Amino acid sequence: MERLAALQNRFLDWARSPKADTVATAAPTGRIEDFRGRKYCVLVTYKKNGDPVPSPLWFGVGNGKLYAHTVGVKVKRIERNPEVRFAPSTFRGSPTGAPIVGTARILSSGAEGDAERWIQANYGLQRRVYNRMLGDLDTAGVYLEITPAP
User: Fold this and answer.
1) Which residues are CB-neighbours of 130 under 8 A, at least 6 positions away?
2) For residue 107, what is the DSSP state?
3) How many distinct structural domains can be found in the chain?
4) Helix H or strand E segment including 29
5) What predicted TM-score, i.e. pTM, was given to this entire model?
6) In whole angstroms, how large is the CA radius of gyration of the chain?
7) Neighbours of 65 (CB within 10 A)
8) Smallest Cα–Cα separation from 54: which of 27, 83, 94, 81?
9) How far is CA 69 from the centre of its chain?
């Protein structure tokens, strides 16, 4: 399963829009309300050396926070540095709104249900079909809770 997740991430890195990088430098004037009705967001995490890495994700919004499910290296980057930027985007990560600065945390197993419900609410049948097709791959990752900075 990890190889399949790595292959999927490699494809998504290849397909990512060069405009995704602008989220790391644009003025953070966005609001969490800007994500309502959107299907993708671009999440920027940071490498050890401080270089930004944008990643388009599916997400859900609830309780004034953004929730996402992810696998891969970005989890290690968040554990090391929870400061992130995120903005609504296209499938390829091209921003469609202003970014927000926030703090990401990896949810414990008890809190994952709420996160999945918020994500499910944003996608409905599309999310259920995606989960069914990926099977164990989708359960391999972690859920993130991203709180916008005040």
Assistant:
1) 123, 138
2) P
3) 1
4) none
5) 0.84
6) 14
7) 20
8) 94
9) 7
Neighbours of 104 (CB within 10 A): 24
55-82 pLDDT, tens digit per residue, is 998 899 999 999 998 877 788 999 999 9
Tokens at residue 138, please? 């989708």
Yes or no: say if 92 and 21 are a contact pair by the CB < 8 Å rule.
no
Closest CA to 126 of 58, 69, 37: 58
Report residue 49 as tokens.
Answer: 């050396």
Q: In terms of residue numbers, what domain contains 112?
A: 2-148
Both tokens assigned to 124: 């409905």
Identify the pLDDT of residue 146: 97
Whole-number Å distance between alpha carbons of 44 and 61: 17
Separation of alpha carbons 56 and 51, rounded Å? 17
For residue 149, the 8-state DSSP code is: P
CATH number at residue 84: 2.30.110.10
Nearest to residue 78, comparing CAs of 111, 119, 44, 112? 44
